[in-house]
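Pair request: fold both.
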Amino acid sequence: MTKKCISLKLLPEIYGVVRLDPHVSIPEWATKDGFYSITKTSDELSIVCLQHQIPPTVVCEKDWQILKVLGPLDFSLVGILASLSTPLALNGISIFAISTYDTDYILVKHKDVSAAIKTLSNEGYTFIH
């Protein structure tokens, strides 16, 4: 798959990334609405969800937006995340990546969204509105 075949979509909402103790239950506030991702390891319970749903007492990394790679992507494809993350890294744009069965999601700080879109557009990626 070439870059020109990959389309992305900016999700308009603002998200937060939360790290909780691995022994706590998944909090109800995390799964209320919209996109959310929950990953549990022996070290942590990591949650990405709409920022406005996160209680003010919960420590989180705030102000992320999501660039969704429009899929589904075939499992045989190689280097999709690398082809997206490399130009962003070269332009000083930090990411947080999430992969699902069908596709990839690139979280970028809200302050960097315009620069990320410009960078990826210059690399040949298409953005769908």
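--- second member of the pair ---
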Amino acid sequence: MASDSPSRQAPVIVITGTPGTGKTTHAQLLSEEAPITMKHINVGQLVKDNGLYEDYDDDWQSYTVDEDKLLDELEPLVTSGGIILDWHSCEVFPERWADLVVVLQCNHTQLWERLEKRGYSLKKIQENNEAEIMEMVLEEARASYAKEIIVELKSESTEDMESNVARIVEWIRAWLRDRDQR
């Protein structure tokens, strides 16, 4: 279950999904629209900026993350709450950290087009598309967290994004009401 730390005055939300599903855009918008201060942390960027990796894989054009360094970097931030963690993976984050895990999903044809626009290699597009079709990120979330805190949201249009963010804002308001009643 998620942390019930009395010192946590704001939730920790994990926004995850296959690359190209809109995690960063959702997280940025949510940080702007949340009823309380929520800091958006793009975990991939944090890894690059702070050297939290072991090496760079040229073949896959990605970093091999040093999970211990990453968790050490995030722990003090997560402890106080008010964090939106945006990353293509969620299983590395301890279960006690997350109050809500949002898994964004997108039609694989649309995802393919998004990844092409980003200039991804064919190999990387195929790998990510297969991961989306097989619902690998959703399965990872289900294996890592209590089902009550996982929500799957379609992310195929601007309307989806706006609706999703509004839904998460309402969830934050409910979380805050629940905290106040304790």
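Observation on the second member. The mean pLDDT is 94.
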